[in-house]
Amino acid sequence: MRTIASMSEYTIPTEAPKTGWDMHCHTVFSDGTETPTELVRLSREKGLHGVAICDHDTTAGWQEAEQAARTIGQPLIRGTEITAHDHGVSVHMLAYLYDPHAQHIRELFEATRQGRLERTKRMVALMSKDLPISWDDVMAQVRQGKRTTIGRPHIADALVAAGVYQNRSEAFAGAVSSSSPYYLPTPSPTASQVVEAIKAAGGVTVIAHAADPGRNTHVLSDEAIKALADQGLDGLEVWHRGNPEAARQRLLGLARQFHLLVTGGSDWHGAGKPNELGEYVTDDETVAQIAERGSIAVI
């Protein structure tokens, strides 16, 4: 666990920053609808101080994002949103500035992506008995072939294309929801294993939308967050549309108690979600802490 001294110069923000970095964005390399180049361009256009690419369980979009950042002149943090679980609670971990060549990371991503793929195929097989959808329909929604992390959003898009739903959000409230009879959980590592793996690769870990009641019957407990903090967790994503105000205050209290960084991000998916790029951001001081702790450079 980090020492209190290492956090002595860090001031935890008490309210959502008005300016800064959007530290939670997705592209066509997972379940977003826009390219990494477009992500970087739009972040510059919106006046963001910088942006983080965080596709699910992959680094496939990093190279394009880096090229765009250098060409456009927009600061970029390379990251990934990693699917995990903690005693029955689904947990998404934002991992920043880690060595993508670390063997354990490569193996972890490959296993999770393969698990996602097989799970998605099984869900489609179940749905096809009742709905106009096939595996070919899902693959038609995949923009980057085998480099894409395939999952439920691609099922949702196929159902929209078939006219079953008007948009992805409707699909996620219906047949694609976690309460649907077609739902199957994603095989994934534990949150503890993710923290350990990213730390070993020199990276920074933050729990995404850490208190969003729409994602689990129960959110992570104080005890679970403390256990991860003791193991080396770096921060909590507090400023996110899924976290209710009361939950944000709870997370801020935990951040103070366990000496954690506080981040914000839009969870932008392009046209895939209503979330607007930059609707929540991370302040420059927190980003500087992340940059200092990471093992690869901010672009």
Automatic annotation (TrEMBL):
GO MF assignments: 5'-3' DNA exonuclease activity; 5'-3' RNA exonuclease activity
Membrane-spanning residues: none
CDD domains: PHP_HisPPase_AMP (cd07438)
Domain Polymerase/histidinol phosphatase N-terminal: start-end pairs: 21-86
InterPro entries to which the protein is assigned, alphabetical: PHP_dom (IPR004013), PHP_domain (IPR052018), Pol/His_phosphatase_N (IPR003141), Pol/histidinol_Pase-like (IPR016195)
Pfam family, one: PHP
Name the record gives this protein: Phosphatase
Source organism per UniProt: Bifidobacterium dolichotidis
